[in-house]
Design a protein that fits this description.
This protein has 120 residues and is mainly beta. The protein has a single domain (5-119), classed as Alpha-Beta Plaits (2-Layer Sandwich). The protein is built from two helices and six strands. The protein has helices at residues 21-24, 76-83; strands at 5-12, 33-38, 49-56, 62-69, 90-97, 107-114. A six-stranded antiparallel beta sheet has the order 1-6-5-2-3-4. The longest helix is centred in the middle third of the chain and has 8 residues, at 76-83. The radius of gyration is 15 Å and the shape is globular.
């Protein structure tokens, strides 16, 4: 059987309390897809990878909401892939939500690598 996705990593969402996560927290659920965005100009982390939720508003307008970041202990290789233009191969989704936990442990993410259909 050919796999369509391969597990890459799992981690918590870092820094969520400092960004706009609370604005859309009620819309987030297990399985929600989020986007990984390389932040080259981040003054706190030279390998910063932002986690962005695309919030659909009225009239199908999309607002990008910064939820937080991939933790610095896990972002070096991922940042390099994104810098090299490989952002489309990653599928990042919320894998766990616990509103009762400490901010740093409320949201967990799973990142998978998608099959390159063009190569098949």
């Amino acid at each position: 059987m050919i796999k369509n996705k391969l597990f890459y990593m799992e981690c918590h969402l870092a820094g969520r309390q400092y960004h706009d996560c609370n604005e859309v927290f009620g819309k987030l659920e297990v399985g929600t897809r989020v986007k990984l965005v390389r932040e080259l100009d981040n003054r706190y982390d030279s390998d910063a990878v932002a986690v962005v939720y695309e919030n659909v508003l009225e009239a199908n307008e999309v607002e990008e909401v910064l939820l937080g970041y991939i933790p610095s202990a896990h972002n070096t290789d991922l940042a390099a892939f994104l810098e090299m233009g490989w952002d489309k191969i990653f599928d990042c989704r919320i894998s766990r939500i616990n509103p009762e936990a400490h901010y740093e442990q409320q949201i967990h993410l799973t990142v998978k690598i998608k099959r390159n259909i063009a190569a098949d």
